[in-house]
Predict the 3D structure of the following.
Amino acid sequence: MLRRAILFSPALLLIRPAHAQQRPSVTASFSILADMTRQIGGERIALRAIAGPDQDAHGFQPKPSDAAALTNAAVVIRNGLGFEGWLDRMIRSSGFKGALVTATDGITPRMMQAHHHGHDHGGAGRRHNHSVGPRQVPDPHGWQDLGLAQHYIRNITGGLVAADPAGEALYRRNAEAYAARLAALDQWVRAEIAKVPAARRKIVTSHDAFGYFGEAYGVRFLAPQGVSTEAEPSAAEVGRLIRQIKAENITALFMENMTNPATLQRIAQETGLRVRGRLYADALSAETGPAPTYEAMFRHNLSLMVPAMRGDAP
Ligand code: ZN
């Protein structure tokens, strides 16, 4: 009798739909930001990522349904530093009226040469720019330094709290626990890198997504596309990199999950090195893959990087 009375209580019927309406709709530009946001917002938010697992967010082509996800979002979270030119264009045309959070706010960016990947990092117009010589632009890949991730957490949390003040205590509690996990992971990364002799801390990857990682953890990254201001590196540039790999006895050669492997395969062939697997740079893996979360991405990348740099048998 008592149970029935509660089930049909008009007061409860009123509470349920009101509760559902409070769940803020949050859209993150790409998979890594979406995972960070999920760790902080949990089940309290309705979360959507635009560029999903294994998708290259640099040259992303949004679909009409992605624009619809923006129109209805209470919060949109972007990386910033010129990473998602396509998102800024979508926001302008979608009639989005929510809060725009830039996860890298407060970070002092490293600078890099424009067109480093052969992707359009900076939005419409850049490819038609007639200036001569390499132009310096901010490096957007700040998430590759776990120390800088603390800025991401602070900015994302601030955005969720502003959109949903009633959830503040939960968001702050989750953010604090997440920040502590990432600080511990940062220490673990340093301990792993310390297992590699200093002179061997060098890695070749397809594009230069690891500048912040290299600066934070003392690893030198070389990328065939990183030295080029064109879409594809020239034969001379690839040849130079091959000579450097041989001269410095570099053994850590990697592909990335979202870039074209052709140049890396050629380097492997000409150096006699084996490609030591796939690093996750700008996108997570699917749920069943080795890097379905930001934290798992670091554990996976380090598990490949350390033996490869040491030259351990594959
Ligand atoms: Zn990138």
About this structure: The radius of gyration is 22 Å. The chain has eleven helices and ten strands. The longest strand covers residues 25-30. The first helix runs from residue 2 to 7.
